[in-house]
Fold:
Amino acid sequence: MACTVKYILITVLFLFSFSANAAHLTYEIDDAGLRIQIDFEQGYSNVNTLKLDKSFVVSFETPEPVVFSQEFWDMPVEKLFVTSDDTRKRLITDFAGELVVPEIVSQPKMLKITYAFPKVQQTDPVVGTQAYARMIWGLLIILAVMLGIFWVFKTYFKRQVFTDIPGTGRLLGKADIDLRKSLYFYEIDNKIYILGVTDASMTLIEKVSDEDEVTRIKSGFNKKTEFVNYMKFFKKNPGVKDEVEISRNSISERLKSLRKR
Structure:
């Protein structure tokens, strides 16, 4: 029992003396760099450096034990560790990419090693004030284009819809009788269809089948006469003297009927 206690005491004293005489290594690492500091109890000497492909070695002489090993993730440095060859110690820094040469400051019983990482050029974030502004302007431009296309389609569709009907039909012409109200004269198979068109509806006003009336309407459009002469078909076989007056009365009645629709 006494021997066991004696061995335990010797072991504790040995470990205590080992830790008391050991050099102490601390470090700090961030995006700016890696800062290492080694504090010695008895001191150090003969500091040398060695630059390898992706590693940098700082070696020094000291009788004190130095034990350290640390791995890093998502940093320019992959691993930092110390190897020993008797009194010769080597502090090795492994880099993930480009190797960085450190700045070494030697002080009595203290060794400072600083690796300054290269600054990464920061790009403007994709989502930001400028990005939102560009997106809003793009949406406004698209909206303006869509409204413009809608306006053109709405404005000119009524002028072209009748001429786009396939077959033997053709548009003779139109007469504007009121704001946004027009009469269209469309010929199909020797018949003339008179259509009243507004913004909200399209109505068949009259279907002219009589050959004489069809001829008179067509000739009126061909001569580019006034609107009152286009509408003479509302009175069959009018006399020469009262032709104009009858046409005016017929037109007035048709206009009133169209406005009520």
DSSP finds five helices and 13 strands in the chain. Helices lie at 2-21, 129-160, 211-222, 227-230, 243-259. The first helix runs from residue 2 to 21.
